[in-house]
Specification:
BirA Bifunctional Protein, domain 2; three-stranded mixed β-sheet; 17 strands; Helix Hairpins; alpha+beta
Length: 425
């Protein structure tokens, strides 16, 4: 959430920044609501004061034997007017909150201009696209020919956009997850954490998925509804909700492996075949909590940690800085890491690493005490995939395929595969 004080005092600057995304902020309507709020706030406080004063006068008049009927009537009238003013104030406050919760984050000044992914700026590449020496198969053909991927069984069980994996591929996905967790904890200083897969609405409001993206979520039909997490970012980031951290508790770096659940609303026709875009998938997520002065550097470090995974797996990739029109709703700046897929002959996203600045922290009331001032300040939150296990599996399958359809096991994964070197039918 953007600082309401900034919205009131620098409305034009906020509108100009959001316009880079293609978002139209109706500044006049917001300021009009804000004026209504201030007026109603003053009226409510005045009526409250008058009622309190009149109530005290009743006691005095009663003690002196005076007729208190007129005073009682006046207090009753003030009570009605106060209740009406409070309702009007609450209504305007809810309207303001709805506007504020809908607003995307302010973009970092370093984010390049652009409308969509075609305007994203390549930052660097690592490795060269694989030269296989034969026509590359995609992960679907490879998995089915090995007898280790079964979309038909998954469809029978759950419908479209699910997969059943067996044998070596199921083990390889587990190996990838374990390898990533071990790398981030032992080499990058992350603390592993286990979190709930079901969360309540307040957690999703805190990280920005609600109220705007409810259609993308799976929700239980219970008296108090739960949501299946779309990413571990939600429960891990909410660990600091309503918290005041001390300076020696920052920075904090957490890594979590969870399944992720997404309805993929509005994505029909996109990657409907295979495992690229599914309703259920596995991900290893990196989350950072830092002071504002550390967040720009933390984004570079977090992105580097995700890159190390691909380097150890010897998978060619590139890093792109998302342009203004492609940066996610809550992010101030995002790097996408795109891995090379021979079966598609293109780079595909395998990780998004984002700095949210204080956008999520303001929603969550997540703060730290600055020792220089002694005052609480909002922390900055960052997150990124370190990396998506399903897409990493696809990348390994396609980059390590042999002409006979077998798949070499990357050296980095062999200790997690009981020394297995090749997946064969």
């Amino acid at each position: 959430m953007i600082d309401p004080k900034l919205l009131r005092q620098s409305t034009a600057d906020v509108a100009a920044n959001l316009a880079r995304r293609g978002y139209v902020f109706d500044a006049d309507a917001y300021l009009s609501l804000e004026e209504q709020r201030k007026s109603l706030q003053m009226d409510t406080e005045q009526l409250q004061s008058e009622r309190n004063s009149s109530s005290k006068n009743i006691g005095k008049a009663k003690a002196q034997g005076e007729d208190i009927a007129p005073l009682l009537a006046a207090v009753e009238d003030l009570g009605k007017r106060l209740a009406a003013s409070q309702r009007a104030l609450q209504d305007v406050q809810e309207q303001l909150q709805a506007v504020e919760l809908d607003l995307p984050n302010l973009l970092d000044e370093s984010v390049p201009d652009g409308r969509d992914e075609s305007d994203n700026a390549e930052v660097r590449r690592w490795g060269e696209p694989s030269e296989l020496g034969f026509d590359a198969r995609d992960h679907i053909e490879l998995g089915e020919s090995l007898g280790m991927i079964n979309f038909e069984a998954a469809s029978k069980i759950s419908g479209s956009r699910f997969v059943v994996m067996t044998g070596g591929l199921a083990r390889m996905q587990r190996a990838l997850i374990q390898f990533m967790l071990d790398t981030h904890t032992s080499e990058h200083g992350y603390e592993e954490t286990y979190v709930p897969y079901l969360v309540q609405s307040q957690a999703l409001i805190g990280t920005g998925q609600l109220p705007k993206f409810e259609e993308d979520l799976f929700k239980t039909n219970t008296e108090v509804p739960f949501y299946l997490i779309p990413t571990a970012e939600v429960p891990v980031t909410n660990m600091v909700r309503d918290t005041l951290l001390e300076a020696d508790q920052l920075p904090q770096k957490f890594v979590a492996h969870t399944p992720c659940f997404r309805s993929e609303a509005g994505s029909y026709g996109q990657d409907t075949r295979g495992m690229i875009r599914q309703h259920q998938f596995e991900k290893v997520e990196l989350v950072n909590f830092v002071a504002a002065s550390q967040s720009a550097e933390a984004l570079e470090a977090l992105t580097h940690c995700a890159e190390i995974i691909l380097q150890k797996l010897e998978l060619p990739y590139r890093v792109v800085a998302l342009c203004a029109g492609d940066v996610g709703h809550g992010s101030a700046k995002t790097y996408d890491i795109e891995v090379w897929l021979p079966g598609q002959q293109k780079y595909r996203e395998i990780s998004s690493c984002s700095n949210y600045n204080d956008y999520q922290a303001r929603r969550m009331k997540a703060r730290w005490r600055n020792p220089e001032t002694g005052k609480p300040e909002l922390i900055h939150t960052l997150n990124g995939s370190g990396v998506a296990a399903g897409r990493a599996l696809i990348a390994v399958m396609e980059n390590y395929q042999n002409e006979d359809g077998s798949i070499q096991v990357p050296v980095a994964l062999q200790p997690y595969m009981a020394g297995m070197e090749t997946l064969k039918a």
